[in-house]
Amino acid sequence: MRGLFLAVFALLIVAGDSGRFSPQLVHNASAVLNQSKAERQQVNSALAMLWDASMQGSEQGQSLLLSTFQNAYNTNFENNSINQEDASYWLEKLVRLENADAAWLLYQMLGEEGASKRFMRLAAIGDVAEAQLAFAMSSDSPEKREKWLVRAASQGYVPAQAALADWYLLHGKQQLAKPLLAATAELDMQSAFKYGRLLWDEENVDEAKIHFSRAAKLGHQQANRALSVINRYKQYSPSNLPTISWASVSSTASECLQRIQPFATSLATIIRADSLYNDFVKDTRLSSLPICIAPPIWLKNDVLSCSANFKKSGVLGCDVAPLAIAAKQREFSHAVVVSEQGKANVQNGVMYLDISDAYSVFVHELAHFSGFADEYPIGRGMARKLCDEDGIEDFVPPNVIVDSEYWYSPHSTVDKWLSIDPATIIAPAKTCMVLGKNSYKPSRRITFMEHHDSGVIPPLYLVLWREQLKKQNIQRPISMNFFQMFHQQGNQKEAAHWLEEYEAFVGE
């Protein structure tokens, strides 16, 4: 104990004698801090020396103070000689000297709730790349976010470069994103994958595969899927599609009352289309339905023109004229087009999905192919056609009825429900809420026609679905789509061909 006292006393004497000589202060403080078992009082004295040196303009003093607190923070202040309260005290003093690294460490220590955004900003202004990235991501201003991302990325900070690349991709600036992704591709699996995507879109196939492989080796699942579809699919134009035998498409369906051909328009969409197809093949719930779905066709990039607001409709759509050639060759009755972005919908035998749509959305839209109505509130325009006893007679959805003067309409739908299951409970549906009218469904449960992601497919609905598929006269195959399109274009020869195809399908 006497030895410890003499050591401290001697240290204080030295500090006092050389208090105005900052190198000596740093040296003495370092000697204490390097002791593995320095007492807290010794440590506090050493910190005070470093602060005196810092006040004299010693960058070494500031650096040693900062590294001491950084090490303590990294070990969760397990060393009792320095606690978080002491560290916060000295770091705030360093912040007053405009030490950006101290501001950033203090922000990290206190957390977003406990720290002032001022510390983050000071660190960002002081060119602390981590703080610049955090400051950028905390900003709601697009201009300010991009400004600070650029500053952080310019320092070679990989997370900031990756974030800036994402920002450029989000805003359609692929050429600005490309050099950033190239710089980070070997260090970050997400960047490697995205760089591969850009190279693929530029038809630089071999280089794209190299980066997909690098990302896959690092554990990137989408890169694995990309390599898988690239190896299993090739791109086609509508005029040179491979032949197909619909009898061999489904091993469980006894007949193909709907022959559905999915199409993809890019690498991203073929990955999604392939996933949807595989999910359908594995879906035992639908295995008894006479629906045949072929493996997706990967179209060349320039075949289809699609838009998230097709013809100002507010939903996803495409000019499907190029698919007419494919339909003649492969004889499909319905098509699924997976595009990049837009709201899912069904239009006359064509289902439109985007890459974010889950398999549950596909199943929901698949039921629309057979005339099922939505059980969530539909739009006013459709509600005016469907939600009265005369209008619904024109559509006759298998799962929705409305009030009529004496009972329900259509009566035949209710009779169908009760003949299949006499215990059917007629429950309120939300279909016609926009008009303030009552509508009903044959289940108390939330079904997949109300909530595609959490709803169930009741057994009665599967029976109704099979019955609907047998009524081909109430369906709208893609031939109707082609007929209307060619008729509007004045191509009466093609219009007549597709009208004949439509009449053959519905049995007229």
Describe the structure.
The chain has 508 residues and is an alpha/beta fold. The protein folds into four domains: 2-126; 185-231, no CATH class; 233-370, no CATH class; 371-474, no CATH class. 55% of the residues lie in helices and 9% in strands. Strands 1, 2, 3, 4, 7, 8 and 9 form a seven-stranded mixed β-sheet that branches. The protein has a four-stranded antiparallel β-sheet with strand order 11-10-13-12, with helices on one face. Strands 5-6 form a two-stranded antiparallel ribbon. A hairpin with a 2-residue loop joins strand 8 and strand 9 (350-354). The longest helix has 16 residues, at 2-17. The model is unreliable at 1-19 (pLDDT under 50).
Topology record:
Blueprint: H1 2-17, H2 22-33, H3 40-55, H4 59-74, H5 84-96, H6 100-114, H7 117-125, H8 129-138, H9 142-153, H10 158-170, H11 174-184, H12 189-201, H13 205-217, H14 221-232, E1 235-236, E2 258-264, H15 267-282, E3 291-293, E4 297-299, E5 305-307, E6 317-319, H16 323-330, E7 334-339, E8 345-347, E9 350-354, H17 359-369, H18 380-386, H19 391-395, E10 401-403, E11 408-409, H20 411-420, E12 427-429, E13 439-441, H21 459-470, H22 478-489, H23 492-506
Parallel strand pairs: 1-4, 2-3, 2-4, 2-7, 7-9
Antiparallel strand pairs: 5-6, 8-9, 10-11, 10-13, 12-13
Spatial shape: elongated
The amount of beta strand, in percent, is: 5-15%
Estimate percent helicity: 40-55%
Structural class, by secondary structure, is alpha/beta
Runs with pLDDT <50, length 5+? 1-19
Query: How many helical elements?
Result: 23
By DSSP, the count of extended strands is: 13
What is the domain tally?
Answer: 4
Q: From the alpha-carbon coordinates, what is the Rg to the nearest angstrom?
A: 34 Å
The largest β sheet comes out as: 7 strands, mixed
The mean pLDDT is: 85
Distance between the amino and carboxyl termini: 108 Å
